[in-house]
Design a protein that fits this description.
Layout lengths: L2 H8 L6 E3 L2 E3 L5 E5 L6 E6 L3 H16 L1 H4 L3 H17 L1 H12 L3 H24 L3 E2 L6 E9 L2 E5 L5 H14 L3 E5 L6 H12 L7 E3 L4 H10 L3 E7 L2 H14 L3 E4 L5 E4 L5 H13 L11 E5 H16 L19 H16 L3 E4 L18 E4 L6 H4 L6 E7 L2 H9 L3 E2 L1 E5 L3 H10 L4 E4 L14 E2 L2 E2 L6 H4 L2 E9 L16
Parallel strand pairs: 7-8, 7-10, 8-9, 10-11, 12-13, 12-18, 13-16, 15-16, 18-19
Antiparallel strand pairs: 1-2, 3-4, 5-6, 6-22, 11-21, 14-15, 17-20
Helix pairs in contact: 1-5, 2-9, 4-6, 4-8, 5-6, 5-8, 6-7, 11-12
The structure holds NADP nicotinamide-adenine-dinucleotide phosphate.
The site of NADP nicotinamide-adenine-dinucleotide phosphate (NAP) has 32 residues, from helix 9 and helix 10.
């Protein structure tokens, strides 16, 4: 066991909440963070209560309205974001170890996520200071402008699978736009957000503008959605939770953005570079142990190459190294929690009941080194129709369904016959076909001959049950602002409707 990681987690400031710029004991229920590789306790937190939540919102509201923040010009606000980015870079090793403890992800992945979070803060600092208000085309006597103001207090509710990435994608644009932010991390992985709070505090952000409230979704999450002083909720998580929050947001007529689940298709045409496609398909579903919203979990392979492709894919999958998150040879690390491991196993069992053929995996690996962790073998199942439960339900684990297809029209119809619409991978050497198919598939992101590549400058989000709204990209800043139109009369004359004004000369 790597001592350094536990030491770093233990060094998080003593108080367990970061409330309005202060570290302090929460007055809500305990939250226990455990290490997915062996079940050992990382940290027991006293979570936030409703009264902690109310206080954080009240402080955020006052801090956001304070001229020391509200009156800052965008380039001045950007300096805070650059300092946070510097802090994330300086502390990347620490952030990554804490995140691996929190989630069980490999260190290689969490290191990349920590650096990418720094890039996210830097990017939105740059966007804030270079984004212009709009001078609109004049159609009357008035000069017309469209300007953008902060919303006020924004709540960010995030899942456990890639905490530093989802936290940064919400906190950075929300702060850059001039808001205050209350972040509620997932109860299974609360430590990374607290480490982010430490870095943001060190960067000197005015007190009150940022709080981290670990606490249960049903209590703290609900409070944030229902509270009248929360002007927007930015949510990433499951579709069922997102739908419930959307109902509540509708009651308040509050904007909400929803980054939800997926059941993303990957499509391999017969002309694809087979090695490239096999590697890409494996990365798409088995990296992060499949705990990724964009996991390519439904694989369609053209019938002419189906047998050969699937045989080679299975052989390569059996050779993947399942192991400890801190072992640099590990490709597939443990799942987040024993309950989640049971859920993943449940999906596999239901698929077998539905007539699937198990090609590999299907269970936790054997051996002492796996006994206490939430490991699950990379699993491939075949011979199910696209209507089977495994092809419709999000598993959020290392489980792939493979299906054959005959032609382009076939596969477009099958790929789109699903409630989700998050991502799609297309493997072919024919660029025009990739273009046609990519345009026809309902998905927020399409990858051609690659998968799971991300750029903060490229918008991301889903359609259908995968969500509403887009994050990232320059417009990602506007998602945290309210638009206002301003007309300034240039004629200098009274409005003719009123006729001559008595007493005027
Ligand atoms: P989840 O159960 O929906 O939880 C997400 C967050 O919502 C957690 O902080 C959770 O708190 C909170 N929450 C739960 N119930 C709530 C309620 N009634 N009111 C307010 N907040 C509530 O999802 P998860 O299991 O953490 O994450 C996995 C899901 O996230 C998958 O479906 C995955 O596809 C999706 N995801 C989507 C994206 C994307 O960008 N599209 C990215 C990553 C993950 P507690 O932890 O305290 O319950």
């Amino acid at each position: 066991m790597d001592k350094t990681a536990k030491d770093w987690a233990a060094e998080l400031p003593d108080g367990q909440l970061f409330l309005g710029g202060e570290w302090r004991q929460g007055t809500g229920a305990e939250i226990v963070s455990t290490f997915p590789a062996d079940g050992s306790v990382n940290r027991v937190l006293s979570g936030a209560s409703t009264s902690d939540g109310n206080e954080a919102i009240d402080r955020a509201k006052r801090a956001q309205a304070d001229p020391s923040w509200r009156a800052l010009r965008p380039h001045e606000r950007a300096r805070y974001l650059y300092r946070i980015a510097d802090g994330l870079e300086r502390n990347a090793a620490r952030v990554s170890h804490i995140q691996s403890l929190d989630t069980g992800k490999t260190l290689a992945e969490t290191q990349a996520l920590a650096l990418s979070a720094a890039g996210t803060f830097r990017y939105f600092g740059a966007v804030a200071e270079t984004m212009d208000d709009d001078l609109t085309a004049q159609r009357g006597t008035a000069l017309t402008l469209s300007v953008f103001d902060p919303l006020g207090v924004v709540a960010a509710i995030t899942p456990w699978n890639s905490p530093i990435a989802s936290d940064a994608q919400k906190v950075a644009p929300a702060l850059a736009a001039g808001n205050a932010v209350i972040l509620k991390p997932a109860s299974w992985a609360p430590l990374t957000a607290l480490e982010l709070a430490r870095i943001i505090d060190d960067a000197g952000l005015p007190k009150g503008l940022f709080s981290v409230l670990p606490g249960s979704g049903s209590q703290i999450g609900n409070l944030l959605v229902e509270h009248p002083d929360i002007a927007k909720v930015s949510f990433t998580g499951g579709t069922q939770t997102g739908r419930a929050l959307a109902h509540k947001a509708a009651e308040k007529l509050m904007p909400i953005s929803l980054e939800l689940g997926g059941k993303s298709p990957t499509i391999v045409f017969a002309d694809a570079d087979m090695n490239q496609a096999i590697a890409g398909v494996m990365f798409g579903i088995f990296s992060s142990s499949g705990q990724s919203c964009i996991a390519g979990s439904r694989l369609f392979v053209q019938r002419a190459v189906y047998d050969e492709f699937v045989a080679r894919l299975v052989a390569a999958t059996k050779a993947l190294r399942v192991g400890h998150p801190f072992d640099c040879a590990t490709q597939v690390a443990p799942l987040i929690h024993p309950d989640h491991q049971s859920e993943v196993a449940g999906h596999v069992n239901r698929a077998l009941e539905d007539g699937a053929t198990l090609l590999c995996g299907g269970k936790p690996p054997m051996g002492d080194s796996f006994a206490k962790g939430n490991y699950f073998e990379p699993t491939i199942l075949a011979d199910l129709p696209n209507t089977a439960r495994l092809c419709r339900d999000e598993v959020f684990g290392p489980v792939l369904a493979v299906l054959p297809f005959d032609d382009e029209a076939d596969v477009i119809a099958a790929a789109n016959d699903n409630d989700y619409g998050l991502a799609c991978g297309i493997w072919t050497r024919d660029f025009t076909r990739a273009w046609r198919v990519g345009r026809a598939i309902r998905a927020g992101t399409v990858w051609h001959n690659t998968y799971k590549q991300f750029s903060i400058s490229t918008p991301f989000g889903g359609d259908g049950d995968s969500g509403i709204g887009r994050e990232k990209g320059r417009q990602g800043l506007r998602a945290y602002m309210r638009q206002k139109s301003i007309y300034t009369d240039l004629s200098g004359a009274p409005h003719p409707w009123a006729g001559p004004i008595p007493g005027s000369t």
